[in-house]
Please model this.
Amino acid sequence: MGKAKAKAKQVKGKLKETVGKAVDDKDLQAEGRGKQMTGKAQETAAKAAERLKKSGQ
Model:
């Protein structure tokens, strides 16, 4: 997954978390936080893959 898709997942997660807070839905908030964390991990992996590719490995 590329950095752009990972960032989009983070944004969607933040939106879900915000909506969950607005409607007082703890499950939706937790789902949103989970998506954000997944997106951050995927973004980190994509960055590492780019660095590895640039180093010629």
Observations:
- The first helix runs from residue 3 to 22.
- The helical segments are 3-22, 26-54.
- The mean pLDDT is 94.
- DSSP finds two helices and no strands in the chain.
